[in-house]
Amino acid sequence: PYNxxxxxxxxxxxxxxxxxxxxxxxxxxxxxxxxxxxIKGRHGYTHYVVDGYSTSRKLVILSHGIGTxxxxxxxxxxxxxxxxxxxxxxxxxxxxxxxxxxxxWFDYTPDVFVDQLEDVLDHVTxxxxxxxxxxxxxxxxxxxxxxxxxxxxxxxxxxGANERAIPKIVLLAPALWANKPFVAKVADKIPxxxxxxxxNIKLVKNLIGESYIENMDSAFASDESTGTxxxxxxxxxxxxxxxxxxxxxxxxxxxxxxAAGIVGINGHMIRGDLLSGHRKIFLKVLxxxxxxxxxxxxxLDCSVPIKDHVETVRKxxxxxxxxxxxxxxxxxxxxxxxxxxxxxxHILPFLQG
Length: 353
Fold this sequence. Notes:
Layout: E1 9-11, H1 13-16, H2 19-29, E2 37-40, E3 44-51, E4 58-63, H3 74-82, E5 86-90, E6 99-100, H4 110-125, E7 135-142, H5 144-159, E8 168-172, H6 182-189, H7 191-200, H8 202-219, H9 232-245, H10 258-268, H11 275-288, E9 292-298, H12 306-319, E10 323-328, H13 335-338, H14 340-352
Parallel strand pairs: 4-5, 4-7, 7-8, 8-9, 9-10
Antiparallel strand pairs: 1-2, 2-3, 3-5, 3-6
């Protein structure tokens, strides 16, 4: 059941994946992972990576966005470790090397997100391990990962879980609003039917990858006068990456769980009619928790449309001393990929303050 504690155990990749499945993940990801350890928690197997060791006991959790993996944070991790932080990053279920324990076409709800984060955090900081004395300093979340951070603060603040009190969160383009591609909008309206079709009809399932890659066009910042991508090389590189992940490259099989993981998140975490509920939870966090929040938004973000909603966030900032909005000039929704150094320059003073 959700919200119940269970003992976490470290497992070997061979206990989670067949050799064929692991090869398929590695080929689709152009990788030779897993990169670190895998634990068995309440809902499945979570792959996580710990970097650095903070002598000042400062631990930062990094939670990625839909369709990506913990590797999206590598450049930011380097800056954080160089600045004296330990970092803990992990793959969502159905992403990277994390696997849901059961039907991979599952409901990826806020409770599952928080349970997964609880499990990996408790495992890393428990017992007599190297990181048992590390103090949770902040959660940094991008897009869907930012929603996971908000819901974690909400649960832990309401539970009075002092051992997991979060002094700070950094929300990178949080998915509190969403401009979605057509297929995702249709799935919003009839999530159960679309999940059934995605699961059982190969041609329909292929639409998941096609839609995700199509959405890359609006996820990267483009010059408003010329329409050219400001970070064109990085945009093309990421598009090529996702063509591999979704099996669009000849001779490369798709990632075995990614499409299902994306559908589970779209239908039960970022479905259009759920977003207003996330905003209400965020406002409750601002009003009732003691957590300081940095909200970082690309000035050219069209996926979480800044032009339509920035005034709302500015009003929240005026009403709540714990909230600070920072607009990253010239960046889009994929701001970590576009210019990770700029993002580090924005968030490090906040984390160090």
